[in-house]
Design a protein that fits this description.
482 residues; alpha/beta; TIM Barrel; eight-stranded mixed β-sheet; 21 strands
């Protein structure tokens, strides 16, 4: 949704847009719905009183019957558009009622680096887009790596991009793609919108980006480490998350629901020090045996129970001493907090912490640099104007801000939510805390207020530059990402 749009026709928008990426120019109809993010801008929520005025009844007409496929842009070849669903939604209804229209071509930075690395290529791309009937270009100036496609005094400039199995794409150090794009768009009468990935400062597949040199920027993830609690005489013992296999760390207790797997795995590693507890579904120990005696005893695992296998001498000695038959054990969890850079498989973008003032200030400084230095019609945030997930961000800044918002201290993270594990499947569970709803509002409000700061910052420099944010149609994920 566009915030405070210009009156110029070229800056008006509709829900339909294309993407320029990969090996060909196509219209991307992956995301069918767009809606206005500024709905939140009108929401004022106090943490101590969440009551709201009851909403009025609204009437939404049923979607129209899909028409026959047609070719909106003959240059692209046959490509049917889902006109029924494209025209059904809050953004679409509003755009049609207000007679707003634009045709926007999105240019992904890394996918098209070799198409925009000279002035001649940029001129050709802009001419091609205009010839296809588009009225605006959305140019990605800051991809997820945190490197930029213009001459910046703040952020590093991208030099190259390589994808597995493809040639390396390079950008000459002395060439400014954004400057060339601004020049050509103005010359050819195309509105230029500049796209930024707000809270991403690194590419985890390649380990590149300023977020690695500044780990304090990284989003802090909340994880739970499963532990086995013995009623007396022992510290909690670490438990492996994956069942029916030997853990990488010998210090972790393995959970087995398949007795045959126990027999197969014990000989693989330290059978002389292995020790096995068999527990029922309540966690009560019903049998214990040395690893070397497991097969000869033919111990059965009760329904809903498990075999707990220790490999290390210290852990085995603890279980022998304190986990006798009849003792009831419990699977508990211990919270740990880790920077996202330590979890490269978590997601591709190296997400940063929206609660840190230096992260927010850096993003606003980059935006200001572009708005001041280039002739553009608008800016838009990509879908990294968000959190890493429901497990992020749980940084000290997030905790301090939330306590200020509530006006009281909290048990962290239990008052927000608690992750755990289900025995014996080791499936991850989540239990909302007493302030879970307030937490969701607080983190959403943090993003909303950052967007408001962005609008004020941009408008103070150039009042006619529009400000927008990408909002996808993945509604079930909204609580997770804020």
């Amino acid at each position: 949704m566009w915030l405070a749009p210009s009156a110029k026709d070229k800056e008006k928008i509709t829900g339909r847009q294309g993407k320029l990426g990969g090996v060909s120019n196509i219209v991307d109809v992956k995301h069918r719905y767009r809606f206005f993010s500024a709905v939140l801008a009108a929401l004022v929520v106090m943490p101590s009183a969440l009551a709201q005025t009851p909403p009025t009844t609204i009437s939404v007409p049923p979607p129209p019957i899909p028409p026959a496929p047609y070719l909106p842009f003959p240059q692209f070849g046959p490509l049917p558009l889902d006109e029924a669903n494209n025209g059904f939604g809050f953004a679409q209804v509003t755009a049609r009622a207000k007679k707003l229209q634009a045709r926007i071509q999105w240019i992904d930075a890394t996918a098209n680096l070799d198409r925009i690395n000279t002035a001649e290529k940029v001129k050709t791309v802009v001419a091609s887009i205009k010839g296809a009937g588009f009225t605006s270009i959305c140019f990605e100036a800051k991809p997820i790596s945190g490197e930029v496609l213009y001459n910046s005094k703040i952020a590093p400039k991208i030099k190259s991009f390589a994808k597995a199995g493809q040639p390396t794409k390079t950008l000459p150090a002395d060439f400014d793609p954004l400057a060339a794009m601004a020049t050509e768009c103005k010359a050819q009468g195309i509105n230029l919108i500049v796209n930024f990935n707000a809270f991403a400062e690194g590419h985890q597949l390649f380990g590149t980006g300023p977020g690695y040199a500044n780990p304090q920027w990284q989003s802090v993830l909340y994880e739970e480490k499963p532990v086995l609690q013995i009623p007396f005489g022992s510290m909690p013992l670490p438990v492996a998350v994956r069942i029916n296999e030997l853990p990488i760390l010998e210090s972790e207790i393995a959970v087995y629901t398949d007795a045959a797997r126990v027999s197969a795995d014990i000989p693989k590693r330290n059978p002389q020090t292995a020790f096995v507890l068999v527990v029922d579904k309540s966690g009560t120990v019903v049998a214990q045996t040395l690893g070397t005696a497991w097969q000869s005893l033919s111990v059965a695992i009760p329904e809903g129970g498990a075999a707990l296998v220790s490999q290390s001498t210290g852990t085995s000695d603890t279980l022998k001493r304190f986990a006798a038959v009849g003792v009831k054990l419990s699977l508990q969890s211990s919270p740990i907090f880790v920077p996202i850079g330590q979890r490269p498989r978590r997601q591709v973008p190296l997400m940063t912490n929206p609660f840190r003032q230096d992260v927010r200030d850096r993003t606003l400084a980059i935006l200001s640099e572009v708005v001041r230095g280039y002739d553009i019609g608008g800016i838009i945030f990509d879908d990294r104007l968000r959190y890493a997930g429901l497990d992020g961000d749980f940084s000290p800044e997030a905790k301090a801000g939330f306590e200020t918002y509530l006006g009281k201290p909290v048990r962290w993270p239990d008052d927000v939510l608690r992750f755990g594990y289900q025995f014996p499947t080791m499936e991850r569970t989540m239990t909302p805390g007493q302030y879970y709803d307030a937490w969701l509002v607080f983190r959403a409000l943090n993003l909303r207020n950052f967007l408001a700061d962005t609008v004020r910052t941009v408008k103070a420099i150039k009042p006619n530059v529009t400000v927008a944010t990408y909002v996808g149609s993945w509604y079930p994920d909204y609580p997770d990402v804020g």
